[in-house]
Amino acid sequence: MQNDFRVSLVIPVRDEAATISDLVASIHSQTLPASEIVFVDGGSLDNTVQILRQSAQKDPLVQLIEAPSATPGRGRNIGIEAASNDWIALTDAGISLEPSWLERLVKEIERDPSVNLVFGAYQPRTGTFFEQCAAASFVPAKQQRPGGLMRGPSVASCLLHRSVWRAVGGFPDLRAAEDLVFIERCQQVARIAWAPQAVVSWQLQPTLKSTFRRFALYSYHNVLAGRQRYWHYGIARKYLLALGILILAAVHRPAWLFVLGVAAIARVAKSIWTYDEQKRLATLCNPVRLLLVATILVVVDLATFVGWGRALWHKARNTEDSMARV
């Protein structure tokens, strides 16, 4: 490993008091330490800032920038701008880094110095049965990349040169989907490598209620970012089709309900089968798993529509206010 390869690690945070200590511990356990760790707090109302101030007092490599009301996109831009190195590693709050994460990302640059963006992998932590079912419901399956199977690309697990960030105009100032927009732009200009063994993990929401709240928030901000065609429209088409089948069952034959039931079971089975890397029939045929995955899918769909409706209402109110001022 080159001794002169210096990396700044940039992380936007907000209200992460419950998880930030685990993240800091995983940063300090890296086999290749970052030469600088920049946290950008976007206005935490809990003890996140106090915890990070204590970390900064103990470790001179830790830098805390307080940027009240900063979105994750703007927070990353602030952190990258303040970083003293040209190589920037990015991750998120609520994440834990595998000990060799940064070292494996850097190795891809050393293997091919023309590379200016490396994506590592991410995975959910699935310690409980609910978390296993939640992962099967909405976590993407691994894809084949150079070097092996992995989930990605993700801003929560990447290393890039500052020139790439500048070339795409930085991150959009958004609270959600800013990472997706940034990645799409980077794929147009960057020379990309993949590091399947550079893994970060994150904790899924532990209950149906918290899962609903999280996806409703994601949905709301994704609609405000104008990303409906990538998520919302597909779900809407499914339910419009289901509505059509229900109408057929009402006006033609009740047997159409069988078609609807088969389609629903197929969706659940596909989610379980696609996520399960070992393709085990026992997993697919577990009735409790089928029922819970189905429930989580419905909850996520409902949250999607609730967030969508809130965003449309927000846009309509803003339009009315703008017209009133005119």
Feature tags:
Spore Coat Polysaccharide Biosynthesis Protein SpsA, Chain A; eight-stranded mixed β-sheet; 10 strands
How would you describe this protein?
- The chain is of the alpha/beta class.
- The protein has two domains: 7-203, Spore Coat Polysaccharide Biosynthesis Protein SpsA, Chain A (Alpha-Beta Complex); 208-325, no CATH class.
- Helices cover 52% and strands 17% of the residues.
- It contains twelve helices and ten strands.
- The protein has helices at residues 20-28, 48-58, 72-82, 101-111, 129-138, 162-167, 178-189, 208-224, 232-251, 256-275, 281-284, 287-325; strands at 7-13, 36-41, 62-66, 87-90, 95-97, 117-125, 143-145, 148-150, 158-161, 192-203.
- It has an eight-stranded mixed beta sheet with strand order 3-2-1-4-9-6-10-5. A two-stranded antiparallel ribbon has the order 7-8.
- Helix 5 packs across helix 10.
- The mean pLDDT is 95.
Distance between the termini: 61 Å
CATH architecture level-2 label of the largest domain: Alpha-Beta Complex
Please mark out the parts with pLDDT under 50 across 5 or more consecutive residues, or reply none.
Answer: none
What radius of gyration results from the CA coordinates? 22 Å
What does the average pLDDT come to? Answer: 95
Helices and strands, in N-to-C order? EHEHEHEEHEHEEEHHEHHHHH
Number of DSSP helical runs: 12
